[in-house]
Amino acid sequence: MRPTHRTFGASAVVFLFLALVAGRSAQAQHDALPSWSEGASKQAIMDFVGRVTKEGGPDFVRPEERIAVFDNDGTLWAEQPLYFQFLFAIDRVKALAPQHPEWKDKEPFASLLKGDLKSALGQGEHAIVEILAATHSGMSTDEFNGIVEDWFANARHPTTGKPYTDMVYQPMLELLAYLRANGFKTFIVSGGGIEFMRTFAEERYGVPPEQVVGSSGELKFQFRDGAPLLEKLPKVDFVDDGDGKPVGIQMHIGRRPIAAFGNSDGDLAMLQWTCAGPRTHFCLYVHHTDAEREWAYDRKSDIGKLDKGLDAAADGGWTVVDMKNDWKVIYPAEK
Amino acid sequence: MRPTHRTFGASAVVFLFLALVAGRSAQAQHDALPSWSEGASKQAIMDFVGRVTKEGGPDFVRPEERIAVFDNDGTLWAEQPLYFQFLFAIDRVKALAPQHPEWKDKEPFASLLKGDLKSALGQGEHAIVEILAATHSGMSTDEFNGIVEDWFANARHPTTGKPYTDMVYQPMLELLAYLRANGFKTFIVSGGGIEFMRTFAEERYGVPPEQVVGSSGELKFQFRDGAPLLEKLPKVDFVDDGDGKPVGIQMHIGRRPIAAFGNSDGDLAMLQWTCAGPRTHFCLYVHHTDAEREWAYDRKSDIGKLDKGLDAAADGGWTVVDMKNDWKVIYPAEK
Question: A236 pairs with which residues across the strands?
């Protein structure tokens, strides 16, 4: 090796090394949560992450136990005027109506097709189950995924006009990434359909299918033309809401989370389970307080009711995000 | 900076750099499967891994889609003379008998307590369900974990005298590690109880709780003395065997695996599902052919029957491991 080569090679390595060190230092000063206003909520998140990642500290938690669980509707994306999956179901009823002439005289489909949502949903839980069964079963899992993906590509939200997947919350995207950068494994634990959420969770949230926990219908393994498939049956298997959330967590994750994020009473059991755990823990409610940029609702809302949860948050010293003041932007497009 | 310092610093960096390069090269030559004899089975595994990891190659599979699923009983550890979890249940019946004087006259417990296993199990599925309910419910998930961990610490296998967790298969431990080193995510998908397996899967197999799929009983979220817990109910929730395996995979993982490993007809649907997938795939059966070092059984066995599976493997060109000839050692202690 000629000396000039050696000198050049060594200098290049030194340069790369210094660049690496400089890069790390810049990263440490970088604001991982730029869409969060400076204030108590942001500070509480950063304090918690600082404590559980401080090796040798009293609150340190091993990386494999850094499990964070997130509700989806109202926590990671919007849920007004109706859960988006239900808007999908209504669109599907309309699309399938020509194949079901009997729906013209059969409730709850008749009201739905007339555009009378209130009457359709006012018929109680059995009506909702019937609408979900008609639109979420009778096909393979692969076929269902294709239908959902088509819908997301073309459907627009009734009041914002945005594609639904553009109505995820920018501050929560930053929070998901920040937790992962600090060794957390992030899971969705939502009342939404597990297959429905998986179609966009990896791309939008960076959460892979195996880290999505949700409600589900029964599946049946069978063969069609010699090829195996999983048929979606018109029967509810598991409802991942309320007391079902800690159960879903145990079934799918098998460890108690150390951080839980929700926005409604349906998340209360998940937050209670998380914040009664033996390790350092953190519970946060997103409080919808921004009628201008998003929606404002809590104790009296039909969708995303937050009543007992607000009381429990006050009792437990949990963090409550004031959307209006704590979030500089709501949706990614505003960034 | 003084020239001597600079020269020293650069040399040290160059040295580290070269050491790194040398280390990588040594790693490439290292045999990741030392307990596997050279032969068709080992070659097939290595060819498959080479193909799916070759970027730009026709068989390349993105790391996030490299999902590998493993049956547990008879595939990752032994299962004779009876599934180990059932031996646990029998030990629990004996331990709980003083609190259940009525069991002396009540089947299947009476036969079990007299040591007449054959009569106890010969009473059919309801007897097995009753034994499992009596030993796997009526406590919290945390309490159950403690009971299982105690049992593993003290119980010994009836013929080998080994702790049960020493009866994992060394060649399969190497295979799990080899796949993970090549970007695979490894899951257990077994008929065994999900909570039972989780107590040792992370330590023995390097498979964390959230990557264990198994059979389960129903859970109920409730409070005891003000603290939340998950109560194990005496009701079967899901049987992760046979056609249940692809269903369990879809529920927990949400992606079709590209590699599946089993040893019995109970794994057939899982292998069919995996090897009918659109991406490069690999299916393997462990064939128990070693009566001396382990057990020899297949088409006529009550435990781990491998009959239809052997035919399907021949039809599909799947890899069939001949335990006697393909594995240099069976258990880790023999290494």
Answer: A217
